[in-house]
Structures are given as C-alpha cells and as structure tokens.
Amino acid sequence: MPFQIGDRVMCTSNYQRYDSQQSLVGRIGTVRSLVGDRYGVQFDQPFDGGHDLQLQSLRPPCPAGYGWFIPPEFLELERPTEVLHGAGSIGEFFKKLEAQACTSGYCSLQSS
C-alpha cells in the first residue's frame, strides 16, 4: 500500500532496526518523506539511535532521535482516534505544511 506525506502510520511485522535490539513495532508516527523504497517516518516519541531523517529540506525539520526510514511492508495506516481541536489530524497538519513547503521550493517528496 503506498503511503502519502502526512499519513499517520504504525510500524508492524516485527520490524527491527539492523543496528539495535530495539524493536520499532507498535510505534506510531507520521510519514515525512519517501527516499528510494523507504518512507521517512517521524515517530511520536524519541528512541535510541533515532535520527533526523537526514534531509535538510524537511520543513519543519524532524527532531534528532525521532526519525527512521522504514520499508512499506512494515507499515500500516494508523486508525484515527481523535481530532485535534477541530484542526484535523496530525497527518493533515503535516500534509498542509508539506504543501506550503513545496510551493516554497522545499518539497521532500521526490517525484517519479
């Protein structure tokens, strides 16, 4: 299933980073970029070894310790559980930010 910038996703299927015993299974975050065949996900909580997605073009930037690149087969869409004060979901917030950034020349989604 292809994901879009701003989609809220959960890491599934026993995905475990190659450099750590720490699993990312069950962690929830927001798709911030697509690089090659992996999605740059900014997780809601920091974790040991997390990084900033190493993309200087992300606006707003991903905080150090929150990001990781995940293959799509290890992600699924998060089921929305709440709406933030009538402003829509966090995913919608990031989609709007990404759209604004693209019009300013800072788009992180690579076109095919």
CATH topology: SH3 type barrels
Extended strand count: 5
CATH C-level class is Mainly Beta
| Global geometry | globular
Q: List the secondary-structure elements in sequence, H or E.
A: EEEEEH
Mean pLDDT: 77
Q: So how many helices?
A: 1
What helical percentage do the residues reach?
Answer: 10-25%
Q: Low-confidence runs (pLDDT<50, min 5 residues)?
A: 82-87
List the domain count as a whole number: 1
Could you give the distance between the termini?
17 Å
Radius of gyration: 13 Å
Structural class: alpha+beta
- What strand line-up does the widest sheet have? 4-3-2-1-5
Strand content: 15-25%
CATH architecture: Roll
Could you give a short account of the major beta sheet?
5 strands, antiparallel
Q: Can you walk me through this structure?
A:
With 112 residues, the protein is α+β, with helices and mostly antiparallel strands. It has a single domain (8-103), classed as SH3 type barrels (Roll). The protein has one helix and five strands. It has one helix at residues 90-103, and strands spanning 8-11, 28-35, 38-43, 67-70, 75-77. The chain has a five-stranded antiparallel β-sheet, covered by helices on one side. The longest helix has 14 residues, at 90-103. It is globular, with a radius of gyration of 13 Å. The two termini are 17 Å apart. 29% of the residues are buried.
